[in-house]
Amino acid sequence: NGDVANPACSGIEGVLEAYHRSLRSVQLYGPTNFAPVVNHVARSAAEVLDGSQYFVLLIITDGVISDMAQTKEAIVNVS
């Protein structure tokens, strides 16, 4: 949603709104490292034990993922 301190979105509408807003303000460039982001989202999701929330991680890249092996490993480990 653009708020580093509280990056949560509310519902699919919130995710789509954040996505559209980011398209106007984000410049994509490398290196592109996704493993830290995957692990961060997984830690946040692990804190919600009652099933009251779900987490969506949308990965957008403009080319090569610099840490592809680590990103694959992170996705497998947190799934």
TrEMBL record:
A GO term, aspect molecular function: calcium-dependent phospholipid binding
GO biological process, one term: cellular response to calcium ion
InterPro entries for the chain: Copine, Copine_C, vWFA_dom_sf
Coiled coil: none
Domain of life, per lineage: Eukaryota
CC per GO annotation: plasma membrane
Pfam families (alphabetical): Copine
Boundaries of every Copine C-terminal domain copy: 2-79
Protein name: CPNE8 protein
Origin organism lineage: Eukaryota, Metazoa, Chordata, Craniata, Vertebrata
Gene expressing this chain: Cpne8_1
